[in-house]
Every structure is written in structure tokens, then in C-alpha cells.
Here is the input.
Amino acid sequence: MSYILLQSTTDSLSIAKNLSKKLVDKKLSPCVHIIHSPNTYYKWEGETISTKEYIILIKTNNLNKEKIISLLNKEHNYNNPEILSRSFTIESKDYIKWFDKELNE
Here is the structure.
């Protein structure tokens, strides 16, 4: 099985919590982390913006990737949400059993 970590950000803790809960409840991810990032700087429509954001880290497998991206695009409060992905390896056999069980129940 191939595992991925999807990452997004939002300026709303309630949106971060709502997205995380939906992803876990729909069994698209067994575990989502919300990390408070003190400040984010980015360019938007020619201006440099500074805001406080929350980083949403979504652990899943490749089979759920498109469903998660679709949910993020539909439910996110940003018109153009950040969605990044990277592969990872799970090194614990017990963790793999739990992870796969929670995705496949």
C-alpha cells in the first residue's frame, strides 16, 4: 500500500476542525493533525498578506487522494486552497494494522 500525507491550510480553526472531523468520519483518513502556525506570509493578487493560519495534515492512502481533494475543494473556506501531498512510509507493523483497519472498516 502507498501512503500519502496531504496538507492544507486555513485561517479558521472551526473550518480546520470541521474538515478534519469529516475526513475521519468518512474513513478517508484515520488521523488528521491541526497545527497552529503563528504567521503565514503569501502573495495574493499582487499584495503580500500576513495572517495566522492552521495547518491541516491528513494521513491517508493513494486510494483516497482524489476524494479528499474533492472534499477540500468543496468544503474549504478559501477559493484556492493549498493542497500539497507527499509519500511516506509507516515503519511500525502495529501502526499499519491500525491505519489500514480504520481506512477499510
